[in-house]
Amino acid sequence: MISIPALSAENNAQGSIAIIHPMGMSFTAEQRDFLQAASSLCARICAYSRSQESNTLMLGELEHRIRNLFLTIGGVANLTLKRYPEAKQFRAVFGERLVMMHRAHSLALSTCEIDMATLLQEMLAPYQKDCDISFSGPDILLTQEAASALALVIHELGTNAAKYGSLAQSAGGLDIQWSIVAQGINEPDATFRLVWTECGGPQVEQPSRKGYGTAMIKGSLSNAFDGAATFFYEPAGLKCEISAPFTRKLGRSN
Question: How many CB atoms lie within 10 A of CB 173?
Answer without folding.
Answer: 17
